[in-house]
């Protein structure tokens, strides 16, 4: 069905019928648009919440066009839940829905382990995705005398819940949060409040995740190590069977001066920095030689306190974004080729990422370019 833009310029909203959805261009009066002929509920503008959609998953406010849709269609409007869910700027910026729709891929064949503070079992968008068989309490009672050790997220920020929801919330509620909603999620709890008494918990978590069959591991934890610690712990990582076959993404950390944080700076891990939605390096990230790949890390909405999406910032949330995108790619490759190669995929993630300010040593992940290269 063709519609015509009325007497004012009309914004094109990418991926969602929302006023805060990404807008890359506008159409001049008289422009013709080919739409699918269906009606979609979205944000209210000038007393109307009805939008039209094209095959590229772009939305147009119906008040801005001339159309021949019968009144009867408005009376019997039926909206699919997936088309009425709220998305956020970081989600739209990465064109996640476009990947889903173009490649029919939501991560079904991938497994991702999130090593963090656990997850909220009261969150139905996560509880439906995570079985207790895929959870592991890595903490030892001797390090936490008198404190109950449970997989449920006890952190005041709900740090682990946020990270898990970004990777793969089921997206059955009013918001689209999970990048790979059909991926298998594994949760290893190695912290209660964001700190750990012994770095060995990180090693134990990675070892467990690999034994469980994770394709990807997301670690939103960072600390400074010195001297022999770096050597010894690096050797411990190196000795983990099959570590060379798994993608381990770890948060670069935050510092006003260049610093190396771990586990991100170990050669077995991929250090993830934070970027802005203007595609610049965020002040939320440290600057070091190990951190090449970046992803949005400012005001990232996810499930936190109160079970309602709220924003939080830092490389902690850039990391599960990259893990979720990688899960989509791994699943796609498994489905098409029956296998995937870590080094080949990582190379494509790097080479399709956009240089920041012309600097090839600092890049921002680009899911659309990545999938075109697969």
Highlighted features:
374 residues; alpha/beta; SH3 type barrels; Rossmann fold; 2 domains; nine-stranded mixed sheet; four-stranded antiparallel sheet; 20 strands; 22% strand; hydrolase; Peptidase_S8_subtilisin-rel; Peptidase_S8_subtilisin-like
Largest sheet: 9 strands, mixed
The level 1 CATH classification of the largest domain is Alpha Beta
Which stretches are poorly predicted, pLDDT < 50 over at least 5 residues? Answer: 78-82
CATH topology of the largest domain, by name, is Rossmann fold
Percent of residues in helices comes to 25-40%
User: In percent, how much strand structure appears in the residues?
Assistant: 15-25%
Total beta strand runs: 20
What structural category characterises the helix and strand content? alpha/beta
Oligomer status: single chain
The overall pLDDT average reads: 92
| Rg (CA only) | 22 Å
CATH superfamily of the largest domain: Peptidase S8/S53 domain
Total helical elements: 11
How many separate domains make up the residues? 2
What's the overall geometry?
Answer: elongated
Q: What gap, in angstroms, lies between the N and C termini?
A: 33 Å
Question: Can you tell me the CATH architecture of the largest domain?
Answer: 3-Layer(aba) Sandwich
Give the gist of this structure.
The protein has 374 residues and is an alpha/beta fold. The chain has helices at 71-75, 81-84, 89-93, 96-103, 124-127, 159-168, 200-211, 227-238, 315-337, 342-352, 367-373; strands at residues 2-5, 10-11, 13-14, 26-27, 32-34, 40-45, 48-53, 58-61, 65-66, 111-116, 135-137, 184-189, 216-219, 247-251, 270-275, 293-296, 300-303, 309-312, 354-356, 359-364. It has two domains: 2-68 and 79-84, SH3 type barrels; 89-373, Peptidase S8/S53 domain (Rossmann fold).
């Amino acid at each position: 069905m063709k519609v015509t833009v009325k007497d004012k310029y009309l914004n094109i909203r990418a991926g969602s019928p929302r006023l805060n959805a990404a807008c890359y261009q506008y159409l001049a009066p008289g422009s013709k648009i080919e739409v699918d002929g269906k009606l979609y509920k979205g944000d209210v503008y000038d007393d109307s919440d009805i939008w039209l959609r094209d095959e590229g998953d772009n939305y147009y406010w119906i008040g801005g066009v001339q159309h021949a849709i019968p009144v009867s269609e408005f009376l019997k409007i039926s909206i699919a839940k997936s088309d009425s869910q709220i998305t956020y700027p970081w989600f739209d910026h990465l064109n996640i829905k476009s990947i889903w729709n173009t490649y029919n891929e939501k991560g079904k064949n991938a497994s991702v382990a999130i090593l963090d503070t656990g997850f909220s079992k009261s969150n139905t968008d996560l509880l439906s995705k995570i079985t207790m068989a895929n959870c592991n309490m890595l903490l030892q009672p001797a390090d936490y005398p008198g404190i109950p050790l449970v997989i449920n997220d006890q952190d005041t920020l709900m740090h682990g819940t946020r990270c898990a929801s970004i990777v793969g919330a089921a997206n059955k509620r009013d918001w689209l949060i999970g990048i790979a909603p059909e991926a298998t999620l594994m949760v290893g709890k190695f912290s209660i409040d964001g700190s750990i008494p012994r770095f060995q918990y990180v090693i134990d978590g990675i070892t467990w995740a690999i034994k469980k069959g994770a394709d990807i591991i997301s670690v939103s934890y960072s600390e400074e190590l010195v001297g022999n610690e770096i050597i010894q712990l690096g050797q411990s990582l190196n000795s983990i069977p099959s570590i060379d076959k798994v993608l381990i993404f770890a948060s670069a950390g935050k510092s006003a001066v260049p610093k190396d944080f771990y586990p991100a700076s170990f050669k077995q891990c991929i250090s993830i920095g934070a970027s802005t939605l203007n595609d610049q390096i965020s002040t939320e990230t440290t600057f070091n030689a190990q951190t090449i790949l970046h992803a949005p890390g400012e005001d990232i909405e996810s499930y936190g306190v109160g079970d309602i999406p709220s924003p939080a910032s830092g490389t902690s949330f850039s990391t599960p974004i990259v893990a979720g995108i990688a899960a989509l790619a791994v699943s796609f490759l498994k489905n098409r080729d029956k296998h995937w190669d870590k080094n080949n995929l990582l190379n494509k993630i790097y080479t399709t990422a956009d240089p920041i300010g012309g600097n090839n040593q600092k890049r921002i992940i680009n899911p659309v370019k990545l999938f075109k290269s697969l």
